Each structure stands twice: as structure tokens, then as C-alpha cells.
From TrEMBL:
GO terms for molecular function: cholesterol binding. This is SSD domain-containing protein. Residues 172-337, 951-1116 form the SSD domain. Belongs to the patched family. Its main location: membrane. GO terms for biological process: cholesterol homeostasis; intestinal cholesterol absorption; lipid metabolic process; sterol transport. InterPro entries: HMGCR/SNAP/NPC1-like_SSD (IPR053958), NPC1_MLD (IPR053956), SSD (IPR000731). Coiled coil: none annotated. It is found in: Endomembrane system. PROSITE patterns: SSD (PS50156). GO terms for cellular component: endomembrane system; plasma membrane. Keywords: Disulfide bond, Glycoprotein, Lipid metabolism, Membrane, Signal, Transmembrane, Transmembrane helix, Transport. It is a multi-pass membrane protein.
Length: 1167
């Protein structure tokens, strides 16, 4: 009772959110009407009734226990109904009974625990859940602080798991911080070679350790930021694990680079750049190999259908890629700076201070660990006796692991997902006698007022032996196999019982519904016809909605509102009769405690529904059945976990082999060795998982992927009102109709005058008889389109007057055309007669009457509705004020075909094919009578496609022109003879390819992340990146060409100096461009938002490739030039050629130096 009263003083009472099945729509429930599954419902939630005790006629005491006996044996007895108007399921309200044998009911009298369940209304839209969430918070806080000496309490609310994950995440933050702090201290000590306290600040590597940690954090933040901004949802697994993963891999590479540099003999490499270059050159291939394998393997992991694995792998791949780039750029620079500090004897963290007396060693010294490995470990492992022993042990463990790996149990212990002290864990440890509800949903497609359809689903007399109800009943008789605890309730059998009982079906005197609870004499019995225990078709349809409106009570226990009002969707026809659409059969699973129980219950439910579906398909019923329970979405992954795991791991292994084979210079032996070692490690890990009882799930699959990789819509704002209203309409009423329209205007026709009893009426050119007959014939031809291809209009059109499941005829298709006034009948259109007053009455009189009153029944079109004159006619003079247009003066007619639409594009194939026929027919249609304009729903989509294809030639020509321009502009061609030597064709191709790769990467990244793009993005970004990229290419090449090569005789020095000169400006411009587009991505306008995101990423990749790949290409091209080899044909040389070491000026440079610059900088312009 205290829980029931929660929130009453805060206007947050349970009655505001509870599920109350026996109230009518719009009625506010009382607390008693709220559904509470508790044994106290047997006593009407009344202390007095619970405490009642008396001696019966036989001398036995009758008290609360007698009520328990009777109501647990028959919870559906009216005297046992709870105040909310329904039964209290003993399997829900009691728990801890001994497990029954076979399909027997539990002995509820031996229960060791009781359960109280409050049923609260839910909403698919989280914005409507505020009240429920607040009440649940009161519920949780009250029970957390409740203390009792006589009982153990376990509880859970709908929000408990969400709260538990949040609490666990906050608690884990301290673990993350401590781990990073410990790693920082470890890196700081391990990177340096500290000989004493006096030299600590000189020899320590605190700055380098901080830099390494920051690089890892930046890479993780970038990955989270990129995908977060792209709208790719993440999981707790990703946020908490990726920092450790990237830290472990990143720190590994940091140690490798620093220790390799420290082991160099500095006497051979006196300068810092040479030493660091040699160190990175030694370890670079191995770092590249491992990073490539890790990134590719996680990329393959992103192909998984398991959301946890998919998301984690995507985030990890991008984080590792960014970490790899930063390590080989930022960290190498940081190493150089730190080494300069060390060699200038400056203190770490306090670089303004120096140590005057310090002698650094040029010759490398070995650390304690290195000496242990060199003197003891390596000789021991590589000795003749130990090597075979290690090999044998490794093979044996692998064989044993192969034996036990297939016995790995899929699943996840749900207690591991919560903190150990969470209140949810206590609840999971308590086993109830019944599991979660399961719903077998049947889709629309049959007319259940027909006896044949009823027999397919019902379970009573005269029903099919293999009906849905019978099959579900038979499945429930074997709960240990099917995990169905009880037979499902059948609405149709309850409806038959309800309609057969005279005291149930009642009507008011005016024929409206009257509840069966109404006092005697207020209502009258329904006029119904029952044949063979079943209502006739008319009776079934007439009173079905009354069945779902009637509340159950002692005199009419089968009334359906409480049990079925939310279980059945139905519609009314124009006569008020009901047609049933979708519905479900409700049952319960048995008690489910382990992951295996949950996914086995899902598997068995699908086996049952698939068996019924097979029967539906054999009879060609056109309906579908499927099971649903709230936990299915979480456990479906375990049905295919082995297939998903083997696919991800197999593809990862292939990646490792391929990358190793390529990086080692096509060394097949090395590649196979690495492949086999990694494969054995993977197999051994599977064996250990079995030994340590670790189950196979999304988390363990991610860890296995880590093990494998370790060695190696467009313009409308989504938040705008229009989008919100569209989404609301689509979700409630389905997608809006598709329209196919023709606009027809006659050539060279004049106005028509027609004499009537009201005088002479003027008609516009659109009503010329010959013109209308031509239009009429055209409409008939369009209506018949596709009939010879089984693509007729009747298969896709909107037909409002047919019954569900009925196939429309062509006449029933909605066509908005003035010919609907004549019933689409040539004879009626051509009728003409002289009336009693001597006036001719013809097709024009119909136009006059029907345009004035389109809703007159005689004007209805064959599809059963009115033809709106404002839709079917056009070109009238604009009316003044709010007057109606004068439709008689129309200059054009319109024909509109209304076609059914679907929110799911996969269901639009037929409509799209018919529209294609419609467009092609009208494109080829010629007429001397009229001008035709037309449009189909797909016209804009087709137009964009055609425009995009047409623009491809423009893109190709533009890139070709730019290629020729770059080729000529980059080179200094002195004549035809030296063209192939002095040209820069390869460099131009490389520059173009870099631009295309950067654009392709941007499109690929966001395309894979599911970020939709626009035509604007695809067509404009290549030009944008090309313009910016070519600019930087020119700057770098021309800066290098202007150097005096006598000062920089080696190519690396020259290119290094050139890039050093222009690098800051290129970095500045690239940063500004990327940041500006990043800001543009904050726009609420989707087209601008998408374009800016794609452009920013494309420019970033282009910048990286220019300063890496293009610089390398420059170096190769310069080597070709200096060795006098031809461009494109590097196998051939020019023997006689004298290259100039001193730079020469181009014509444009001379113009700028001698004329433009002096003119602009003269006193006339500069004061």
C-alpha cells in the first residue's frame, strides 16, 4: 500500500501512468483500477478481507489460506479477480515452488516468495516517458532505503538496467584514470635511463610520457568524435575498452621507437635527425605491419551483424589509424625535441635550467632486463633440448584447445553487466515460476468473419485440428522443450462465447453499444444470428467492436476489453462493420535464468511460428506469423554467434597473412610463419575460454579480434516542424500517396458557347469536344499500361472502397479526371438530347453541374469518391477574394493517378516499374491537338540520376584538362627533344590520384558509417579538393625548383628544405579550410551539414597524403630526372643532357619580379 501511494503528494501518483484495462478511452483511472499483479488482489487489496477468519459448518477454520488455495487453482474465477478487473496470475505473483514434473502445474501452496508487479504504460517515444521515469525513481529510492528484519527484498524497475549501466560507467571512470596514471608513471620510468637522483630531471622522460599518453587520448577522442558526430551510436564496451586497447598498442610502439634509438651507437649517427631517422627506419616496417593488421582486422570486424562488435570494431579501427599517424609524425617530432633537450643538458619539465657538469655516453649501454635476456633467457630457450620441448608443448596445447573449443557455451552471464551491489542482481538470483510474456503476432490478410478463416486460428469446436490455437496449445504441453509455460489466450474463441451469452451483448434503444454491466432494463439484447455455435458473417462484423468495448464481470467473464483491446487492430467500413487486421496470441515463457534458457526459448518460439507459417504458405493465405518477446532483440545474436565469430576471425587471419606477405616483400615463408603462430594463439585462447568457463558473446569476440590483431535526407532540418509533422503522419497513417499527373492544353482552340435555360454559358478552350475525346483516349491507354506484363495499374493503385484483401478492378482505382463525371464511359460522354424546353443537353451540362457540386452522388467517379474540379481543371482566371474559380473557363485539363506508397523502398518495385512505363509512354507520345506536360513520383529522382550521369563527362573533362595543365606547368620543358625528360606526367598523375583518393576515402568513410550524401557533395567536392590540392602541389614543386641546388646537393635535403619553407603556410591554409568546413558541418541544413563534413575529411586526407605520398613521389621523380631517365619510360636514358644547378626564372616569375611587384610596391600605392 505504501508503494501504491508513492508520489501522491507530488502529483506523480501511480494512477497517472498505470495500465488500467477496464476504463474507457479518455477516462482517468483510480488507484484501484491500476493493474497490480499481487496475491493481495485475491482479497481486493482489503486488509479487513485478508484478516477475516471464521469456523465453517464442519468445524474447520476458513481464513486467508483458503482463498490462496481456491484462487491459485482457478485464478479466472470472478471472485478471485483483482480490483483492476482481471485475474492475478499465480505464476507471476508467487515464486520459489518446487519444479513440477512434465507439464504439471507448480504447487503454488509451497511457494517460498511473493512478487508484486506494477504494470505501467509504455511509449515508443522517450519524450513521453517523463512521468513514468520519475515515478520509477521514487519506487527505486523508496525500496533502496526500506529496511525489514523479517524478509529479503529484491526489486527492479524498467529503468533499473539503464541506471545500473550509468552507475557502472561512472564507477569505472576512476579505474580508467588510475590505469592511465599508472601507465604514465611506468612509461616515464621505463623510457628513461636514470642513473641517480641527482640526474633524475635530466634523464627522465616525463614530457615524452605525457606526449605519448596525450597522443593515445587524442586518437580515442578523434574516433569518438568522428563517429559521434556522424550519428553512429556507441556502447559502454566501446567507451571503456578502446582507451585501454589503444593505450596498450600505442605504448608498445612508443617503447619500440625510443629503445631502438637509445640502442644506437651515437658515434655513427652524430646528428639527432640522422639517429631518429635510422631508428624509425629500423622499426618502421614492423610498426607498419602491426598497425595495418590491426586496422584491417578491426575493419573486417566492423562487417559483423552484431551491433556491439560492429560498433567497437569501427571505433577501434579509426582510433588505431589516427594513433599510428600521430606516432609517426607528432611523437617522432616530440622525440627529437626531447633529445635536443637532453643533449643540451636541460632539465625535463624545466627546460630553462641546465646541468653544467654531466657526461653523456655515446656508446649504448644495456639495461638490466636486456642483460637478463641476452645472458640467460635467449640461450636457454634456443638450446637444443628446450626448443623441441617448447614446440611439442605448443602443439599439444593447440590440439587440446581444438578438442574443447566447440564446447564453448554461447551467451553472457547477465550479472556481469551490472555492478555486484546493484539491486537488479538480487532480483536475477530469484527464480519465479513463470517467465516473460511472448506474443505470436498474426498480420492482416484474411477476413475473419468467414468460417474458413476462423477455423484457421480458433481452438474450440469445429476448428481445424492444425489451427494456430491448437498448435500453440500442443506446444505448451511440452514446456521443458518449447519453453512455453501455458496455452495462449484466444480472442476469437472468447468472442464466440461472449456473443453466445444473452447477458453479454447489449444495445441501447438507438442501436449503440451498451455495456453488459448496465442495470436491468436499461439496454436490450442484441439481434444476432448463431449458426453451429458461430455468429453469422453479418453478426460477427456488427458486434465485434462491442466485444472489445465490454468490460468483464461475473455475469460476463468473456468480455474482451481487458484482455484484447490492445491485442487487435481493426478498421470500420462505410457501413460501420469491423474488419480485423493484425492481432496477437499472448502466452508466457517458462522460467528463464541463463543465457542458454533465453536464446533457446527464442529458437523454440521461432520453430513453432515457422511450422505454422509453413502451413499458411502451403494454403497460400498471404498472412504471416512471428513470435515476439521483449528479450528477443538482445539474445538473437547467440543464434548465429559461431558463424559470426568464425567469419570475423577467418577474415582477420587472411588479412594478417596478406599484409605480412606484402610488407615482407612477398616472403611466403615469413607470412606463413606469422599466420600459423597467430592461428595457434587464437586456438589456445579459445581453449582457455573453455577452461575458465568464459562464454562466447560480443565481448569475448571483440577480445578474440584483439588477440588476432596484436602481432601485427537532404534539405529539411530533422528538427524542423515539417519533418516532425511528416514523421508523425508516416508513423500513424503510413506514407503519403504517390501521384502521377498529366497537364494537357489544347492548341489553337477558341472559347465555346452553350445555350441553357439559364442563358448562354461560355466555356474555355479545354472543353473543346475533339480535344477532350483525344484526352479521353489517352487516359484509357494510360489506364491499360502494363496489362500485358502483369504490371497493371490495379496492382498498385489506391482504391478506397474495397475491403481488406480484395483486389481492385481498374474502375476502382482512384483517377482524378473530369471523365470521372461520366463514369469513364465514352457513350455517356457523347450523349446528347433536346430537353422539354428545347435546349440541347450534352457533356457540357454535366460539367456545369458537377463542377458546382462535385459531392453530388451522380457526379462520383467509379472509384467511389468525388473528382475535385480544382484538381482536374486548370488555367481558369484568378478569382477575386474568396470566390470559387469559374471552372467553365478552364484552358487545360489534368489527369491524376493516385498510387499506394510505402515508407519502405523495398515495397515500391511494382509502383516504380509502372511509373517507368508511364514516363516512357508519354515521352514517345505525339499529338497535333495538345501540349502535354507530365510528372511521376519518380521523375525528380530520375532527373537527378540523368543529370548526375550527364555531369560525369564534365568531371572527367575537367580532370583531364587539369592533368594536362599540371603536367605542363610543373615541368620546365626547353624543347621537344627533352620533353620526356623534363615533363612531369608521372607527378601530375600522382597529384590527381591523391585528390581522387582523398575524395573516395571521405565518401567511403561516411558512406560506410551510413551518413547520407547529396548530389551537391558528389559533384562539387572533387573540384574543391582538386583546386586546393593542386595549389599545394604547385607551391611545393616550384619552391623546390627555385632552390639553388649547389647549396643542397642531395635530393632529401633539397626537398626537406622546400617542404620546410612552405610547410607552415600549407598547414595554416589546410587547418583553416578544415576548421571552417568543420564549423559548416554544425549547420542544421542537412545539405550544408553533409557537404561540410565530407569536404573537411577529404581535405584532411588530401593534406596528409600531400605531405607524405606526394613528397615521396617528388623525391622519386627528381631522382629520375637527375639520372636522365625519361618520364613514363624510366628504363630509357638521355645520354647528352646538361641540367642546371642554378635555378632559372619562368616567364611569369620574370613578369612579377620586373614589372608587377615594383609597380604595386611603388610610392604611388604605398605610403
Amino acid at each position: 500500500m505504501e508503494l501504491t501511494e508513492l508520489g501522491q503528494d507530488m502529483d506523480l501518483g501511480l494512477e497517472r501512468i498505470c495500465f488500467a484495462p477496464i476504463i474507457y478511452p479518455g477516462e482517468v483511472p483510480t488507484l484501484d483500477q491500476c493493474t497490480v499483479q499481487s496475491i493481495f488482489g485475491y482479497y481486493g487489496h482489503d486488509f479487513v478481507k485478508f484478516n477475516e477468519s471464521r469456523i465453517d459448518a464442519n468445524g474447520f477454520e476458513r481464513n486467508y489460506l483458503n482463498t490462496i488455495i481456491s484462487c491459485t487453482q482457478n485464478a479466472y474465477a470472478p471472485e478471485c479477480f483483482a480490483p483492476f478487473g482481471g485475474p492475478v496470475e499465480p505464476g507471476v505473483a508467487l515464486g520459489g515452488m518446487p519444479k513440477p514434473e512434465g507439464n504439471e502445474q507448480p504447487d503454488y501452496n509451497l511457494a517460498t516468495a511473493v512478487t508484486i508487479t506494477f504494470i505501467v504504460n509504455n511509449h515508443a517515444d522517450p519524450d513521453h516517458l517523463d512521468l513514468a521515469m520519475q515515478w520509477e525513481e521514487l519506487f527505486i529510492n523508496f525500496l533502496k532505503n526500506y529496511e525489514s528484519d523479517i524478509m529479503e527484498i529484491a526489486f527492479s524497475a524498467e529503468r533499473s538496467i539503464q541506471d545500473g549501466i550509468q552507475e557502472l560507467s561512472e564507477a569505472e571512470m576512476s579505474t580508467v584514470i588510475i590505469s592511465y596514471a599508472v601507465m604514465f608513471v611506468y612509461i616515464m620510468i621505463a623510457l628513461g635511463k636514470i642513473s641517480g637522483i641527482r640526474t633524475f630531471l635530466l634523464e627522465s622522460k616525463i614530457t615524452l610520457a605525457v606526449g605519448g599518453i596525450v597522443i593515445v587520448l587524442v586518437s580515442v577522442a578523434c574516433s569518438l568524435g568522428i563517429f559521434g558526430y556522424a550519428g553512429v551510436s556507441t556502447t559502454m564496451l566501446t567507451i571503456e575498452v578502446i582507451p585501454f586497447l589503444v593505450l596498450a598498442i600505442g605504448v608498445d610502439n612508443i617503447f619500440i621507437m625510443v629503445h631502438t634509438y637509445n640502442r644506437l651507437d651515437r658515434r655513427e649517427y652524430p646528428s639527432i635527425p640522422e639517429g631518429i631517422g635510422m631508428a624509425v627506419g629500423q622499426v618502421g616496417p614492423s610498426i607498419l605491419l602491426t598497425a595495418s593488421a590491426e586496422i584491417f582486422c578491426f575493419g573486417i570486424g566492423a562487417l559483423s551483424n552484431m551491433p556491439a562488435v560492429h560498433t567497437f570494431a569501427m571505433y577501434a579501427a579509426v582510433a588505431l589509424l589516427i594513433d599510428f599517424i600521430l606516432q609517426l609524425t607528432a611523437f617522432v617530432a616530440l622525440m627529437s625535441l626531447d633529445q635536443r633537450r637532453y643533449e643540451s643538458k636541460r632539465f625535463d619539465l624545466m627546460c630553462c635550467f641546465r646541468m653544467k657538469e654531466y657526461q653523456k655516453a655515446d656508446k649504448p649501454s644495456q639495461s638490466f632486463l636486456q642483460r637478463i635476456i641476452d645472458k640467460f633467457y635467449a640461450p636457454f630457450v634456443l638450446s637444443k633440448r628446450i626448443r623441441p620441448l617448447i614446440f611439442i608443448i605448443f602443439i599439444l596445447t593447440t590440439c587440446l584447445s581444438i578438442m574443447v573449443a566447440p564446447h564453448l557455451e554461447p551467451g553472457l552471464d547477465q550479472e556481469l553487466s551490472m555492478a555486484k551491489d546493484s539491486h537488479v542482481v538480487n532480483l536475477w538470483r530469484i527464480l519465479l515460476s513463470i517467465g516473460p510474456p511472448v506474443y505470436f503476432v498474426v498480420t492482416s490478410g484474411l477476413d475473419y468473419s468467414l468460417t474458413e478463416s476462423q477455423n484457421i486460428i480458433c481452438g474450440g469446436p469445429l476448428c481445424n485440428n492444425d489451427s494456430v490455437s491448437v498448435k500453440l496449445y500442443m506446444a505448451s504441453q511440452f514446456p521443458e522443450i518449447t519453453h512455453l509455460a501455458r496455452p495462449s489466450s484466444s480472442w476469437i474463441d472468447d468472442y464466440f462465447d461472449w456473443i453466445s451469452v444473452d447477458t453479454c451483448c447489449k444495445l441501447h434503444a438507438n442501436g449503440s453499444f451498451c455495456p453488459s454491466t448496465a442495470p436491468f432494463g436499461v439496454c436490450q439484447d442484441c439481434e444476432k444470428e448463431i449458426v453451429d455455435l458461430r455468429p453469422t458473417r453479418e453478426t460477427f462484423m456488427q458486434y465485434f467492436s462491442n466485444f472489445l468495448s465490454d468490460l468483464p464481470h461475473e455475469g460476463c467473464a468473456k468480455a474482451g476489453r481487458a484482455a484484447y483491446v490492445s491485442a487487435i487492430n481493426y478498421i470500420y467500413d462505410q457501413h460501420g462493420d469491423t474488419y480485423i487486421q493484425d492481432f496477437y496470441f499472448n502466452s508466457y515463457h517458462t522460467t528463464l535464468s541463463t543465457s542458454r534458457d533465453f536464446y533457446t526459448a527464442l529458437k523454440q518460439a521461432r520453430i513453432i511460428s515457422d511450422d505454422i507459417q509453413k502451413q499458411f504458405d502451403e494454403k497460400e493465405l498471404g498472412i504471416t506469423i512471428f513470435p515476439y518477446s521483449v528479450f528477443y532483440v538482445f539474445y538473437e545474436q547467440y543464434l548465429t554467434i559461431w558463424e559470426d565469430s568464425l567469419f570475423s576471425l577467418g577474415m582477420s587471419m587472411l588479412c594478417i597473412f596478406g599484409i605480412t606477405f606484402l610488407v615482407t616483400g612477398f616472403d611466403i615463408v615469413s607470412a606463413l610463419t606469422v599466420f600459423l603462430v597467430v592461428l595457434m594463439i587464437l586456438i589456445n585462447m579459445l581453449g582457455l575460454m573453455w577452461a575458465w568457463s568464459i562464454t562466447l558473446n560480443a565481448v569475448s569476440l571483440v577480445n578474440l579480434v584483439v588477440i588476432v590483431t596484436d602481432p601485427v535526407e537532404l534539405w529539411a532540418n530533422p528538427d524542423s516542424r515539417s519533418r516532425i509533422e511528416k514523421d508523425f503522419f508516416d508513423s500513424r497513417f503510413g506514407a503519403f500517396y504517390r501521384t502521377e499527373q498529366l497537364f494537357l492544353k489544347p492548341y489553337n482552340t477558341t472559347h465555346i458557347f452553350h445555350e441553357t435555360e439559364l442563358g448562354v454559358v461560355e466555356f474555355g478552350p479545354a472543353f473543346n469536344r475533339d480535344f477532350l475525346l483525344e484526352v479521353f483516349r489517352l487516359q484509357m491507354e494510360l489506364t491499360e499500361l502494363g496489362q500485358d506484363m502483369d504490371l497493371g495499374l490495379e496492382r498498385i493503385c489506391f482504391a478506397p472502397i474495397i475491403y481488406p484483401g480484395e483486389v481492385p478492378t481498374l474502375d476502382q482505382c482512384t483517377v482524378q479526371s473530369i471523365f470521372g463525371y461520366y463514369g469513364h464511359d465514352f457513350v455517356k460522354f457523347n450523349e446528347s438530347r433536346i430537353d422539354a424546353n428545347g435546349f440541347e443537353r450534352n457533356y457540357l451540362n454535366t460539367i456545369i453541374s458537377c463542377t458546382q457540386n462535385a459531392y453530388a452522388p451522380e457526379c462520383f467517379a467509379p472509384f467511389g469518391g468525388p473528382v475535385e474540379p480544382g484538381v482536374a481543371l486548370g488555367g481558369m482566371p484568378k478569382p477575386e477574394g474568396n470566390e470559387q474559380p469559374d471552372y467553365n473557363l478552364a484552358t487545360a485539363v489534368t489527369i491524376t493517378f493516385i498510387v499506394n506508397n510505402h515508407a519502405d523502398p523495398d515495397h515500391l518495385d511494382l509502383a516504380m516499374q509502372w511509373e517507368e512505363l508511364f514516363i516512357n509512354f508519354l515521352k514517345n507520345y505525339e499529338s497535333d491537338f495538345m501540349e502535354i506536360a507530365f510528372s511521376a513520383e519518380r521523375s525528380i529522382q530520375d532527373g537527378i540520376q540523368e543529370l548526375s550521369e550527364a555531369e560525369m563527362s564534365t568531371v572527367i573533362i575537367s580532370y583531364a584538362v587539369m592533368f594536362v595543365y599540371i603536367m605542363i606547368a610543373l615541368g620546365k620543358i626547353s624543347g621537344i627533344r627533352t620533353f620526356l625528360l623534363e615533363s612531369k606526367i608521372t607527378l601530375a598523375v600522382g597529384g590527381i590520384v591523391i585528390v581522387l583518393v582523398s575524395v573516395a576515402c571521405s565518401l567511403g568513410i561516411f558512406g560506410y558509417a551510413g551518413v547520407s550524401t547529396t548530389m551537391l557533395t558528389i559533384e562539387v567536392i572533387p573540384f574543391l579538393v582538386l583546386a586546393i590540392g593542386v595549389d599545394n602541389i604547385f607551391i611545393m614543386v616550384h619552391t623546390y625548383n627555385r632552390l639553388d641546388r649547389r647549396e643542397y646537393p642531395s635530393i632529401p635535403e633539397g626537398i626537406g628544405m622546400a617542404v620546410g619553407q612552405v610547410g607552415p603556410s600549407i598547414l595554416l591554409t589546410a587547418s583553416a579550410e578544415i576548421f571552417c568546413f568543420g564549423i559548416g558541418a554544425l549547420s542544421n541544413m542537412p545539405a550544408v551539414h553533409t557537404f561540410a563534413m565530407y569536404a573537411a575529411v577529404a581535405l584532411l586526407i588530401d593534406f596528409i597524403l600531400q605531405l607524405t605520398a606526394f613528397v615521396a613521389l617528388m623525391s622519386l621523380d627528381q631522382r629520375r630526372y637527375e639520372s636522365k631517365r625519361f618520364d613514363l619510360m624510366c628504363c630509357f636514358r638521355m645520354k647528352e643532357y646538361q641540367k642546371a644547378d642554378k635555378p632559372s626564372q619562368s616567364f611569369l616569375q620574370r613578369i612579377i619580379d620586373k614589372f608587377y611587384a615594383p609597380f604595386v610596391l611603388s610610392n604611388v600605392f604605398v605610403r
